[in-house]
Write a structure and sequence with these properties.
By secondary structure, this protein is of the alpha/beta class. Helix content is about 35%, strand content about 25%.
């Protein structure tokens, strides 16, 4: 098997990929994400995941590079990572009592410029009706500040969620079924290594 490289600095993606039992290294990508803003959410996360994987793959040989990107969309509005506690509070107030969609694109590229595979997952998440005190308390934990949509379902943010429809791991940031399916296309047998 070629060396597996995760093109992400996300600790959540690192933890999730480790669940597959495959050895991998981490090499975060650096791309200009703004050039993809015009694309609809599913196409955007796929394009960004592929761009991230390609950027890292270009500097490697004999490696499979996994890229990913996640967006939160509510009522047509894309919610990225908040840039301040106040922005996080505004996002959470907006999400309160609503259903939003989490999209994660996943791409695998055979380095340096070999075959590529890309897909995405989509999960609907419904928030509870949140009080201003609940929002303030959650923001005070610091948890929402580095996450798209200003919450982490795998942490205390789970208390904000009334329900989900779809892949939980997608909401965390890496849909493992799609990752396994893409890696299988490149000859990686996750089941044989667990």
């Amino acid at each position: 098997m070629s060396k597996l490289v995760l093109a992400s600095a996300s600790p959540r993606r690192r933890e999730l990929l480790a669940r597959l039992g495959l050895p991998f290294t981490i090499q975060p990508s650096r791309i200009d994400e703004s050039v993809y803003r015009h694309l609809p959410p599913a196409a955007r996360v796929e394009a960004l995941a592929l761009a991230k994987a390609r950027a890292v793959a270009a500097g490697l040989t004999d490696a499979l590079v996994l890229g990913a990107d996640t967006l939160v969309v509510c009522e047509g509005r894309v919610l990225g990572k908040p840039d301040s506690p106040a922005a996080a509070a505004r996002m959470l107030a907006f999400l309160s009592g609503r259903t939003h969609t989490v999209y994660t694109g996943v791409a695998v590229v055979q380095a340096p410029r070999g075959p590529e595979g890309v897909t995405h997952a989509r999960t609907a998440v419904t928030f509870r009706h949140l009080t201003p005190d609940q929002i303030e308390a959650y923001v005070a934990t610091g948890e929402p500040l580095d996450k798209a949509g200003a919450y982490g379902i795998q942490g205390r943010g789970a208390l904000l969620v009334a329900g989900i429809e779809g892949d939980y791991f997608n909401v965390v940031g890496l849909p493992l079924v799609q990752v396994e399916e893409l890696l299988a296309i490149f000859g990686v047998d996750v089941w044989g290594r667990v």
